[in-house]
Amino acid sequence: MFYFQLVIMAGTVLLAYYFEYTDTFPVHVQGFFCYDKTFSKPYPGPEENSKVPPILVYSLVTAIPTITILAGELMAFFMKSESTREKTIVTADCCYFSPLLRRIIRFLGVYSFGLFTTTIFANAGQVVTGNQTPHFLSACRPNYTVLGCHSNLQYITERRACTGNPLIVTSARKSFPSKDAALSVYSAVYTVMYVTLVFRTKGTRLTKPTVSLTLLCLAMLVGVVRVAEYRNHWADVLAGYFTGGAIAVFLVTCVINNFQHAKPSPPPMRLRRPESVLGMPMVALPCVESPLEKLSGTQTPRGSSFTEIT
């Protein structure tokens, strides 16, 4: 089973790589209306010039959950008494697999799987829909004279309508859903659920809400910056929020059972067989006690007398 999970993880990483860095899945080319103001926002520059560049987003969605899970598991492990620490036998009677390491690998492994899954969902949505960004026409630079655009109602479907940089034009066709928003919310929701369900704070009730709201606000801020810089529409950001949040909630609740310890299944109950006579099973029938037996078994208490009634 462990090797099967490794195969699934490797396939997920490979699929995410093909979506992100290769042309295996071509982007759907949508048409556009001439002089459409929805796509006429100024070009904000490459992604590296953003106030929240992808390298920063990827670093935060990787570092924050990893540090949080490591800190939480270490504190929970060392705060337990020696007698309550679990030990799982792997081989013979001398080799033990630490439950601390098992939980860390489990939680971080599921988180990594969800991170690549969110990337796949976002990239697949962008490739299939081919929705344009708000700055699409600024990146496309269509020649309206050659295209014969005489009004805003004319719809252009030609694949060679754009004269801008092909790489920038292709990137401008990947707007729905917002991948940065999806990754940010996935990381925030997963970490918030871990902090809420695992951390035990004494003496204050505001620590966990403060940490949780801070992480969620940072994730929302990424989407706001994407819209403010004309890199995504509000619909793209909201779709990214929903995608990342749904994947995080599903993995936490259904896959790792709300970060709880795996409880061993109880042994099956063994039913006692009734005694048999001559190899034939005895059938237990209901026994009705006779009133005469009750009277015969009743002892007369001392000092009591009965009066005979004739």
Automatic annotation (TrEMBL):
Residues 108-252 form the Phosphatidic acid phosphatase type 2/haloperoxidase domain. Belongs to the PA-phosphatase related phosphoesterase family. GO terms for cellular component: plasma membrane. The chain crosses the membrane at residues 55-78, 108-128, 181-199, 211-228, 240-259. One of its GO terms (molecular function) is phosphatidate phosphatase activity. It comes from the Eukaryota. Its main location: membrane. GO terms for biological process: phospholipid dephosphorylation; phospholipid metabolic process; signal transduction. It is a multi-pass membrane protein. This is Phospholipid phosphatase-related protein type 5. The keyword Transmembrane applies. Keywords: Cell membrane, Membrane, Transmembrane, Transmembrane helix. It comes from Ictalurus punctatus. It is found in: Cell membrane. The keyword Membrane applies. SUPFAM superfamilies: Acid phosphatase/Vanadium-dependent haloperoxidase (SSF48317). InterPro entries: PAP-like, PAP2/HPO, PAP2/HPO_sf.
